Each structure stands twice: as C-alpha cells, then as structure tokens.
C-alpha cells in the first residue's frame, strides 16, 4: 500500500510540476487542480440541488439590470480578446496554422500569450454565472445537459490548456471562441434590453450555426497538428480535445435540430 501511495504521489508530482508550464505556477487557480475541481463540484451541487432548493418557495429574482451589465462585460471582454489576438499575433504573422508549438520562454510576446490564455480560462469561470442566473430566475428549463456539460468542460479544458500549453496551437481556438461569444452576448444583451427582440432578431439561429462551424474548424485544426509527425505540440492533448470537439458538435447539432428544424419541439433558450 505504501508503494502504491508513493507511486501515486510521484505521478501527481510529475504531472503537476514537471510537465506543467512554470510561468503560470503562481497565477490564480493555477497552482493546483483542486481549487478548480472544488469550484466545479460546488457549481454542479448548486445548480442541481442547493440552488433549486433555496429558490423553491421564493419568487424569481428580477435580474434585468444585472443581466444587462453581465452581457455587456462579456461582449467587451470577448471582443477585446479578438482585437488583442489580431493586434499581437495574427497581423504580425506570429502563428503557424499547421503547427504552432508553445513558446515556454520569457519572451515578452510569449508571456503575453500565456497571460491571455490564463485570462481566457478565467472568462470560462466567469461564464458559470450563466447557469447561476438561470437558477436564481427559476429558468430550470434552460439548464440542459448540453449547457452544464459545455460550461463544466470548458473550465476543465481551459485550465489544462493554461497549465500545460499556455499558447501554441490553441490560440486559434481562443480567437474563434471569443468571436462567437462576443456575437452571442450581443444577442443576449439586445434581448435583455427588450425581450421582444427574441421574436424579431432573425440571426438567433445563426449563432448556433457559428458554434457548429467553430467545432468543425477547431477539430480539423487540431487533427492537422495531431497527424503532423514534425509537430511537437503535445499529441496527447490534441487526441483528447478532438473527441471533445466532435462530441460538442453533435450536442449542438441536436439542439439546432430541435430548436430550429422542428418547430413542434422547439427548445427554450
């Protein structure tokens, strides 16, 4: 038993310290996976049990102003990510679409990209408020498996990305995802300002189409690096992220079919 425990500790130390990016070690939530895991455990507990129990005999919270502010912050942050990625990376040809390895040096641009990667992870933590607001507003019909899986999975995936590959091949995903979210939260802001817009904004379903395109592009992009024998980006992460993208594609495709192609079973968002 002692040997097994020692080996487990050695593996943990190997994964946490020797394979990780030392530059992010002291950054918030990056020293150990346990705070992030506990956060997600509490998130699931609150959404599935504690929140509904607390709201059982209460009227839904009126969070109109909070939602407007929240959506506005999301638009500004995600839009800023897109702008900064173009300003520092894309417009200067600092990215190889075929294979972009991680620069673990202290070069100013490499550190900037690492910092952006961490900030991108933090936005996914911030995104968890989406579900919290649903519970507080008693919109339980919106808390679907897709929603919970997507939000939980994004926090896990971006934590791993920041911890081990802060930058590199995943920069394209960050740019595309930020653009999609900026567009999505513009829609949410408009509907928060005037709920009647839900009936009149024709591009609502195209947001889901953007998300589907995102998963196709990012999975293909990862596959290019995975099957490139000369690419030194960690293949194990690529092999893990591709099935995740494919799974998300089919989850969103199922939502798209039910929400927009089958009016009789239209989903509420």
UniProtKB/TrEMBL annotation:
Which InterPro entries does this one have?
ELO_fam
GO cellular component terms attached to this protein's record: endoplasmic reticulum membrane
Q: Which domain of life is it from?
A: Eukaryota
Molecular-function annotations in GO? fatty acid elongase activity
Q: Top EC class per UniProt?
A: transferase
Give the record's keywords alphabetically.
Answer: Fatty acid biosynthesis, Fatty acid metabolism, Lipid biosynthesis, Lipid metabolism, Membrane, Transferase, Transmembrane, Transmembrane helix
The catalytic activity, as recorded, is:
a very-long-chain acyl-CoA + malonyl-CoA + H(+) = a very-long-chain 3-oxoacyl-CoA + CO2 + CoA
Which Gene Ontology BP terms does the record give? fatty acid elongation, monounsaturated fatty acid; fatty acid elongation, polyunsaturated fatty acid; fatty acid elongation, saturated fatty acid; sphingolipid biosynthetic process; very long-chain fatty acid biosynthetic process
Its membrane topology: Multi-pass membrane protein
Q: What is the E.C. number?
A: 2.3.1.199
Transmembrane feature ranges: 26-46, 116-136, 148-166, 172-190, 210-230, 236-256
Subcellular localization is given as:
Membrane
Q: Which family does it belong to?
A: Belongs to the ELO family.
Would you tell me the protein name for this molecule?
Elongation of very long chain fatty acids protein
Species the sequence originates in: Nilaparvata lugens (Brown planthopper)
């Amino acid at each position: 038993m002692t040997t097994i425990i020692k080996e487990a500790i050695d593996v943990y130390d190997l994964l946490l310290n020797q394979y990780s990016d030392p530059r992010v070690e002291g950054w918030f939530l990056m020293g150990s996976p346990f705070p992030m895991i506990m956060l997600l455990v509490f998130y699931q507990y609150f959404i599935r049990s504690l929140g509904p129990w607390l709201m059982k005999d209460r009227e839904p919270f009126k969070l109109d102003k909070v939602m407007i502010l929240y959506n506005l912050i999301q638009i500004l942050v995600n839009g800023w990510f897109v702008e900064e990625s173009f300003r520092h990376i894309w417009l200067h040809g600092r990215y190889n679409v075929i294979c972009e390895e991680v620069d673990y040096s202290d070069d100013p641009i490499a550190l900037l990209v690492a910092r952006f990667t961490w900030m991108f992870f933090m936005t996914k933590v911030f995104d968890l408020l989406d579900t919290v607001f649903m519970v507080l507003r008693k919109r339980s019909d919106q808390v679907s498996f897709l929603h919970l899986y997507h939000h939980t999975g994004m926090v896990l995936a971006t934590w791993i990305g920041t911890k081990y590959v802060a930058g590199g091949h995943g920069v394209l995903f960050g740019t595309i995802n930020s653009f999609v979210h900026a567009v999505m939260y513009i829609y949410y802001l408009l509907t928060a300002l005037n709920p009647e817009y839900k009936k009149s904004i024709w591009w609502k379903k195209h947001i889901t189409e953007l998300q589907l395109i995102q998963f196709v592009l990012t999975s293909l992009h990862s596959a290019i690096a995975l099957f490139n024998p000369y690419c030194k980006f960690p293949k194990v992460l690529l092999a893990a992220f591709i099935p995740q993208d494919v799974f998300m594609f089919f989850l969103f495709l199922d939502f798209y079919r039910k929400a927009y192609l089958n009016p009789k079973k239209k989903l509420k968002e």
